[in-house]
Specification:
eight-stranded parallel beta barrel, five-stranded parallel beta sheet
């Protein structure tokens, strides 16, 4: 057993049962809950994490009734017939000395369907449907449905439940005045407003007995105006303990909050101070969460008394063997979650099956299977960007002999630029992981080496992961000395002036704008600076942690204009869960965004353009081209002539937009089949 993580790997005694370590795999809705063969696929998905050493797992949110659906025909647990199907999951997890709880989630006004209900008939700012206010009969029925769901969970073999009381879902909607305008016994005073969660817990405990885990996900920091005060949160925690809760898990922020809580620019463990503030207020164990992605950070938080247990959700998408690697003192081999949200939350909110950018096998355990091969092939992989690295490591892990050619001085490709963007420092972790895996699986890495197509016939297979080249734009004056490439900017090959126009407002444009506008240390590395920038009261004197709090607007290093041809919202193609954050961050730095622009010319004066039939000029020092790219297929035809077993992957295969998620997924799937 590791001596490096004594707190994290120590058991947690709950009296009637013991959890083998202090690691909770937090709840994530993956979309497997609703697909064909979903229970079989969930069983494989959860079993892999149980096999990887996690102590306690919480499932994705399951509705206690139709009104609680997140969306039409979302997963619910309302009968023994459904509960029996869940035994596939619980049996799979229990084989590996792990425990699992089912999360009961009633979406309330967040429900994306016409049957949604809430404490009051107030539409969510991020919802489509106005909810119906529950009457007395509806409230009593909903409580009974929670209790029924808990009893069915026990029948299905779960070790307990987690009652979702945070993130702005139904229980939150009863608790706060923001969403509870009732005048009956379920509204008005705080004591009345918390009756709903307390009745759920009390009646559930009566029905399931004492030997069943009840976790309550408590919204400790709402991050919305009209949210709970800290004194109210503490009062509810104490009442929940009296009502029979076993563990309290920390919830941070409502979904409608305009403060990032889990994106990559959020510092590691940024909100654990909230849980620490609750420590000592109750006598039951507390769980802290949000942006904890390494065993080192988890150990530090436990050692410093921030919590009794650590919840990590997305890190178990990135690496199901997170705990086992920590246990064996191999944390350098952990495939770290970079909190990009591109394949997990973005998929979930678009009703697609979740996965992971750095681990596309997540949630696809039954379809991507890495079998050890008997006949090893000699494979050349050209290009050590994300696609080339993923292919090389996957093929080598299966037993193939892989030689990886990279013409630059280091691996990583576009990731080497991404890691330089303030707020994207986590990309360093993926490069560290790839580097360690190349060594572990004995990939022959040739840096500063271009691949000669003449030598293609020396290999059984050649995989070209040669990436992209920037697309040349046809603008009058495109070769003017003011015009520079985003690649030269991020690689710091040019000294950029005080005023800059960026042509192209996709992911690259937003990254370059952040890179050029940011001044001073990255707030993603300092949670105090982060809280000031986003207006969070760390003294917890403001209601909801934000009401009336002044944001400290960061200074901008330059005057930056972000421009696109399209007439739609600037950055409309960014990720669903992170796009708004990038727009907010740039506006805070006074970056000006222009849409519906046609480019006339570039000259000594600057960038001349037409917008709304009006001609204007931006008198800037530099114009940075961030608009589009082409697949780099320069050596494909010649390589193919010398070796018919030549394929293109990643950006070399398709380059509509830089997309590491698609590139890595494609690379792993192809390497799994060779």
């Amino acid at each position: 057993m590791s001596n490096n993580f004594p707190h994290l790997l120590s058991p947690l005694d709950l009296g009637f049962t013991k959890i083998k370590n202090r690691v909770l795999m937090g709840s994530m809705h993956t979309g497997l809950e609703e697909v064909k063969n979903g229970y079989k696929r969930m069983a494989a998905y959860f079993e892999e994490r149980a096999k990887g050493g996690v102590g306690l797992i919480v499932t994705g949110g399951i509705a206690p009734n139709i009104q609680g659906w997140v969306g039409p025909f979302s997963s619910k647990l309302t009968s023994k017939r459904i509960a029996r199907k869940h035994r596939l999951i619980t049996n799979a997890v229990h084989k590996h000395d792990a425990k699992i709880c089912l999360q009961i989630l009633h979406s309330g006004r967040y429900g994306y369907h016409p049957f949604s209900v809430s404490a009051s008939d107030i539409k969510s700012p991020i919802g489509k449907f106005k909810p119906k206010a529950l009457n007395e009969r509806g409230i009593q029925k909903t409580i009974r449905n929670y209790v029924r769901c808990a009893k069915l969970s026990k029948f299905a073999g779960y070790d307990g439940i987690e009652i979702m009381g945070s993130e702005g879902y139904l229980i939150n909607q009863f608790i706060t005045k923001r969403t509870n305008r009732r005048t009956d016994n379920w509204g008005g005073s705080y004591e009345n407003r918390i009756k709903f969660p307390l009745e759920i817990v009390k009646r559930t405990r009566q029905e399931v007995g004492e030997d069943f885990i009840i976790i309550f996900r408590l919204s400790m920091l709402d991050l919305v105006e009209g949210g709970s005060s800290w004194e109210e949160v503490v009062l509810l925690a104490k009442e929940l303990e009296k009502a029979g809760v076993t563990l309290i898990n920390t919830g941070i922020g409502w979904h409608e909050a305009r403060i990032p809580t889990i994106a990559t620019m959020v510092p590691r463990g940024a909100f654990s101070w909230v849980t620490k503030r609750m420590m000592g207020e109750v006598n039951i164990p507390l769980i802290t969460t949000n942006r904890i992605n390494t065993p080192e950070k988890a150990e530090e938080l436990l050692e410093n008394g921030h919590a009794n247990m650590i919840s990590m959700a997305r890190p178990f998408l990135a690496d199901p063997y997170f705990v086992k690697k920590a246990l064996n003192d191999k944390s350098e081999e952990i495939n770290t979650c970079i909190a990009c949200n591109q394949a997990c939350l973005d998929h979930a909110f678009n009703r697609k099956i979740a996965s992971c950018l750095v681990n596309p096998m997540a949630c696809h355990e039954t379809e991507i299977i890495l079998k050890t091969i008997t006949n090893s092939k000699n494979i050349a992989v050209v290009g050590a960007g994300p696609a080339g690295l993923a292919y090389a490591i996957t093929a080598a892990e299966r037993g193939h002999a892989v030689t990886l050619f990279e013409r630059s001085t280091s691996i990583g490709g576009q990731f080497n630029m991404a890691k330089k963007i303030p707020g994207k420092e986590e990309f360093n972790e993926t490069l560290r992981y790839f580097d360690n895996m190349l060594k572990k699986h004995q990939v022959k890495l040739l840096l500063n080496t271009s691949f000669d197509p003449v030598n293609a016939n020396k290999f059984d297979n050649v995989v070209l992961a040669t990436g992209i080249i920037p697309r040349e734009l046809k603008i009058n004056g495109i070769n003017h000395e003011k015009v520079i490439s985003y690649i030269d900017v991020l690689n710091e090959k040019v000294k950029v002036g005080e005023s800059v126009a960026l042509i192209g407002a996709g992911g690259i444009g937003f990254d370059v704008a952040e890179f050029l506008a940011h001044k001073g240390p990255s707030t993603s590395l300092d949670h105090v600076s982060f809280m000031k920038e986003w207006g969070v009261d760390m003294n917890l004197e403001a209601r909801g942690g934000v009401e009336g709090v002044h944001k400290v607007k960061p200074q901008s290093a330059r005057k930056v204009f972000l421009i696109q041809r399209k007439k739609g919202k600037v950055g409309a193609g960014l990720g669903k869960t992170t796009g708004w954050i990038h727009r907010f961050a740039l506006r805070n730095k006074n970056v000006k965004m222009l849409n519906g622009v046609s480019y006339d010319k570039i000259d000594d004066e600057g960038l001349h353009y037409t917008r709304n039939e009006k001609q204007s000029v931006l008198k800037v020092d530099h114009v940075v081209i961030c608009a589009g790219q082409l697949s780099n297929k320069a050596i494909y035809e010649e390589t193919k002539k010398n070796n018919q077993n030549t394929i293109l992957i990643g950006g070399a295969f398709e380059s509509t937009e830089l997309d590491a998620k698609r590139a890595i997924d494609q690379a792993v799937r192809i390497a799994a089949d060779i």
